[in-house]
Specification:
The chain is 71% helix and 1% strand. It is mainly alpha-helical.
């Protein structure tokens, strides 16, 4: 019996050893290596590959404000590893003693696929006898694809196509090879191979529904690279007709986005409505399909009301919490389109308050609020929202056209805020300077009373909060965990609340007998009052002298405050006039400056700007008044000359070209030191040139030329004209800098 048992064991061992051979073509060998490949090495590799796909799904975040990529993965194609391997799997050195841990699940999958090929391949007389090796090569190619090594991936796919032409996965392999070629920008080659595959399937019907979907999806990716947008539309539309899965929903969503970009709003709404109403569609596509319907609706469309109800219903659904920021934003857009600006503001603010990691979404909400307040002429508030846009914008989106436009718009608002703050601050200080001593004392006493009242309210709120906490076990949650205890006196936080509650009821009591007597309370109250008085005396905020000392008395300081305020008023007038085209605010600032101005050189430009503004708003009497003032008082000035000879408008691009040529000629004269000729040329400019955008450059060049051959006083006078007339332009600012240097 024992001999029989040993013989059986011996035979099993011999069979096992013989079956391990990859050079012997037998049923046992083929099945042994096929099973070992499938359920050991290849299984582990496929598990690692699935883990890698799951990681991509978790970590990849779609930006629904832009067209989604058809394949949800982000490759840095400029850094693609294009090293060519001599043969599939040759990059793995089995004899290398120093083994490195795979960097990603895809690296591990590649390692397992290569191991399966190296240890279980049965290539006998040029034919592969292990039916699972083609699966290993496909896994090898796909793993390389996801690690952005497309040429080695194509080598693995080509090996399958060349050696396993009748394999069940041959069609999948051809699709993956086409996708790899798309990533390598070999779109034409990808399109040719996919066309051949699709045409063959039309006759033989060999592809499964999933394979057809993958083929048409890959074809759309290829045509997207060639910018053949209609072909992209055709292939995406076909790809959505086979299966109801994640990729089908994504393809339909991208199709709707393309229709929207092409301004085919009806087609876009049709696609998005279908996605929004289908239950099988993944949640993120359903929610964003409803949002896209808002983006593709006309403000005057009657279905606007239905969309408002749809968005409100989505907001009420607690399952959609992570989309609240976007839903609130789109609800705001709908309300703004309907003219309900206040409701729109409320929704935009709710969008910003909703918890979300989508920073890009916030830039749109801040921009909308900035635009609303800008249109309301509340420029300071608008500027703060534009500031917020720039603060939350990440480096990835800094160079977007929209962000660059906001930067330019906010640049003027930043200056405006600075000047407005200067005017308010300096006006407040100068108002105090102008008060009598009694008026100042009364003003600050009233101010101190308000501070005391505010401080008392804060103190009372704190006491109430502490008292409230003491009623619920001492509020131990408010303190650190180290102070917690089961008994009251083991908890320092509870003791603190108890002391506060005691003092609130009994006042400060000495540790002695009969402490409850009423006279003790009176004494303690007196002590409390004395302590309060002492506290008030030591708090500088409650002392009038603290504020009186800060009022400037030096005449030079007061003059500087007035000059800075007046300069700020002048600049505000120019900004409102030139940049924001707000005649009302421009007139307000210029008129205010005119009433308090002490500089004679500002009288003329202020009146000229007011003349232009009153003429613009159609106030003929005031415009005439300013015009006559300039013609009578400053008849020899350039402003008077401009009024006497109104400029004609430029209506032809050829005139612009001629003006540009004229400026080049004058600048050339300046470069060749022919300064008098420069002055003559500028003085004799045509009316069209005087009314062009280049006039500031001409005038500055004239001033610079005068500085080269005339006196310093004349040079300064010309520069002052440029600085005042074009104060809000680069040329005016340059002239101001030169004047400071001359001083």
């Amino acid at each position: 019996m024992k001999k029989s048992y040993n013989l059986i064991v011996f035979l099993i061992i011999v069979c096992s050893v013989l079956s391990c051979s990859t050079k012997k073509d037998s049923v046992i060998n083929r099945n042994f290596h096929a099973l070992t490949t499938k359920y050991n090495v290849l299984f582990n590799g496929e598990q690692a590959f699935e883990k890698g796909l799951k990681n991509i799904e978790i970590n990849y975040a779609d930006n629904f404000w832009k067209r989604l990529p058809i394949e949800p993965i982000r490759f840095d194609e400029t850094n693609a590893n294009l090293i060519k391997f001599s043969s599939p799997g040759s990059g793995f050195d089995a004899g290398n003693a120093e083994k490195k841990t795979p960097a990603t699940p895809f690296d591990r999958a590649e390692e397992k696929a290569a191991k399966a090929i190296q240890k279980h391949s049965m290539n006998i007389n040029g034919y592969e006898k292990n039916r699972k090796i083609d699966d290993a090569y496909l896994l090898l190619g796909k793993s390389r694809y996801y690690t952005q090594r497309f040429i080695p991936a194509i080598e693995a796919f080509n090996y399958i196509i060349a050696n396993y032409p009748k394999a069940a996965l041959i069609y999948d392999t051809k699709v993956w090879r086409a996708k790899s070629n798309v990533r390598l920008e070999n779109e034409k080659l990808a399109i040719e191979s996919l066309n051949l595959l699709i045409e063959l399937d039309k006759n033989e019907k060999n592809l499964t529904q999933l394979q057809r979907q993958q083929a048409y999806t890959a074809m759309a990716m290829a045509y997207e690279k060639t910018d053949t947008i209609q072909k992209v539309i055709d292939n995406l539309a076909i790809s959505t007709s086979f299966l109801k899965n994640h990729q089908s929903a994504r393809n339909a969503f991208v199709l709707g986005q393309i229709y929207s970009e092409l301004n085919r709003k009806d087609s876009a709404r049709m696609v998005f409505r279908k996605l929004a109403d289908e239950r099988w569609v993944p949640e993120k596509y359903r929610i964003h399909a409803s949002i896209e319907m808002v983006k593709n609706i006309d403000a005057k469309d009657s279905s606007n009301v239905l969309l408002v109800d749809r968005i409100k219903k989505l907001i009420r659904n607690s399952d959609n919490r992570k989309y609240l920021n976007e839903l609130y934003y789109q609800a705001g857009v709908l309300q703004e389109d309907r003219g309900n600006t206040e409701k729109a503001i409320d929704y935009y603010l709710k969008s910003l308050e909703a918890q979300s990691s989508d920073v890009y979404q916030k830039t749109y909400a801040y921009e909308k609020l900035g635009n609303i307040y800008f249109d309301k002429q509340e420029y300071l508030l608008a500027g703060s929202f534009y500031d917020s846009v720039l603060n939350v914008t990440t480096e990835e989106f800094e160079n977007e056209k929209r962000i660059r436009r906001i930067k330019r718009k906010n640049k003027g608002l930043t200056k405006l805020r600075s000047y407005e703050e200067t005017v308010v601050t300096n006006d407040s200080i100068l108002k105090l300077v102008a008060m009598s001593p009694d008026e100042r004392n009364a003003f600050f006493e009233s101010y101190i009373e308000k501070i005391k009242e505010s401080d008392e309210k804060k103190r009372q709120r704190l006491l109430n909060a502490q008292d409230f906490g003491s009623q619920f076990g001492g509020g131990s949650s408010l303190g650190g965990s180290n102070n917690q205890g089961k008994w009251y006196f083991y908890n320092t936080q509870s003791i603190g609340f108890g002391k506060v509650a005691f003092q609130k009821t009994w006042g400060k009591r000495s540790l002695e007998d009969n402490w409850r007597w009423s006279d003790k309370n009176e004494v303690s109250s007196e002590i409390e009052e004395e302590e309060t008085v002492q506290t008030e005396k030591t708090d500088s905020r409650y002392v009038v002298d603290t504020y009186l000392k800060q009022i400037p008395s030096d005449p030079l300081t007061i003059t500087a405050l007035k000059d800075n305020r007046n300069e700020a008023l002048y600049q505000l007038g120019l900004i409102y006039k030139e940049q924001f085209k707000n005649s009302t605010l421009a007139i307000h600032n210029f008129e205010k400056l005119y009433d308090i101005n002490t500089k004679p050189e500002l009288v003329l430009p202020i009146n000229y700007h007011l003349y232009q503004l009153y003429d613009e708003i159609g106030d003929a009497s005031k415009a005439e008044e300013k015009k006559n003032f300039i013609l009578n008082k400053y008849s020899n000035s350039k402003f008077a000359e401009i009024i006497r000879k109104p400029n004609s408008k430029i209506s032809d691009d050829k005139k612009v070209d001629k003006i540009d040529e004229k400026y080049r000629l004058v600048y050339s004269l300046y470069k060749h030191n022919r300064f008098e000729d420069v002055v003559n040329q500028v003085d004799n400019l045509s009316d069209a040139a005087k009314n062009s955008e280049l006039i500031a450059k001409f005038v500055l060049l004239r001033a610079l030329a005068i500085g080269k051959y005339k006196s310093k006083e004349e040079y300064k006078k010309e520069l002052e004209f440029v600085a005042l007339t074009y104060a809000n332009r680069v040329e005016g600012q340059k002239a101001s800098e030169i004047i400071k240097l001359l001083k």
